[in-house]
Design goal:
6-stranded mixed beta sheet, alpha/beta
């Protein structure tokens, strides 16, 4: 179980302003713009940054910055060892208990087995991210936290990452700014949270969101989706607005 209570993080200014999030045998998408604090939340969950409040994974606090069994993340701070991709996989097989053969299966599914003997730092940004995603998930974690798992990844490969996220783990949270990924068939059972101005709104089921209409005024049967710049935004179920229009509207709101 992933439990976040009254999380606050500040650097030069407040970044996260007292959020709560609880996942119990659930998977979630945290949608927010670049610079909204999404990565800060993942780094807090991973015990990398100092924070106020409480975060527990399977009942264990992450404040002590100790390894939590059954948890994995794709953050670059975690994967610093090894020169080649093969060396990284071998090292983290020993250090983190990743399944080397599952990792290879992931790369084969991506048609990327040829990179095994290449230096990790020489890979493209998208290739590096795919490797980190694969390393994180090939440890077969009970709980995972993935930071921008689709960024700089070819469109043809993004759905494969979504499939991994669906199949691996009992609970998981992935953060992204790419609203178009909500249309992936593999993410339809995920719950969506919105990170706006340091606060979290939600959850809303992906299917519910995609079959609803975004409105800027309250209507009968509507529910508040979020508040941004002092304006409330509502969700109206069962509208005739098509999926592409909903995605465009969400993308516009989250800018």
């Amino acid at each position: 179980m992933l439990s976040i209570n009254s999380l606050k993080v500040s650097f030069d200014r407040p970044i996260i302003q007292g959020i709560d999030l609880h996942l119990d045998s659930q998977k979630a998408i945290l949608l927010g713009t670049n610079g909204s604090g999404k990565t800060t939340i993942i780094r807090s969950i991973s015990g990398i940054v100092e924070y106020q409040g409480e975060i527990k994974i399977n009942g264990i606090s992450t404040k002590k910055n100790e390894k939590v069994e059954g948890f994995s993340t794709n953050l670059p701070e975690i994967f610093k060892l090894g020169r080649t991709v093969n060396e990284m996989a071998t090292l983290y097989e020993e250090l983190m208990g990743i399944d080397y053969f599952l990792f290879m299966d992931f790369l084969e599914e991506m048609k990327m087995k040829e990179i095994m003997n290449r230096k990790f730092k020489k890979l493209s940004a998208g290739q590096q991210l795919i490797v980190r995603n694969a390393l994180a998930l090939s440890s077969k974690p009970m709980v995972y936290a993935l930071d921008e798992p689709f960024e700089n990844v070819d469109l043809s490969r993004r759905d494969t990452i979504a499939k991994w996220a669906k199949e691996i783990g009992l609970e998981g949270i992935l953060v992204t700014h790419e609203a178009d990924m909500l249309t992936s068939e593999y993410l339809r059972d995920f719950e969506i949270y919105f990170l706006v101005d340091g606060k979290i709104y939600g959850p809303v089921n992906v299917e519910e969101l995609l079959s609803s209409k975004i409105e800027y005024r309250e209507e009968p049967g509507s529910k508040m989706l979020m508040e941004k710049n002092g304006k409330k935004i509502f969700l109206v179920k069962g509208s005739e607005q098509n999926v592409s229009e909903v995605i465009k509207e969400i993308d516009f709101i989250m800018r």
